[in-house]
Design a protein that fits this description.
alpha+beta; five-stranded mixed β-sheet; about 40% helix; about 25% strand; rod-shaped
Amino acid sequence: MVYFLCMVESNNLGTKLCPNCNTLVEEMARKSIFYNFYRCPNCKKTFRVKKEKFATSTILEHQVEKIINILYLLVAILIIYIIIDVVLFIFRY
C-alpha cells in the first residue's frame, strides 16, 4: 500500500520520517518528476512526498510574473488618467 503525503518532517536531504512509526527513512532509487519515494525498513510502509517546486528557474519565473502584473497595473492607471483628462477637457469647453 502506498501512502500519499504532501509534507513530512525532514532531518537531512534525502531522508524523511516515516509517518507511521517515526523511523528515519532514506530515499528509494525509484523516482518520478513530481514525487520522491520512501520505504520504511521498520514497518515496511511505502510512501511518497511531493518534491519542492521552488527551483531557481521557478523563482525567476515568479519574479517575472510579479513584474508583469505591476506593469499591467501601471498601464491601467495610465489609461484611467487619460480618460479622466479627456473627460475634463471635453466638459471644460
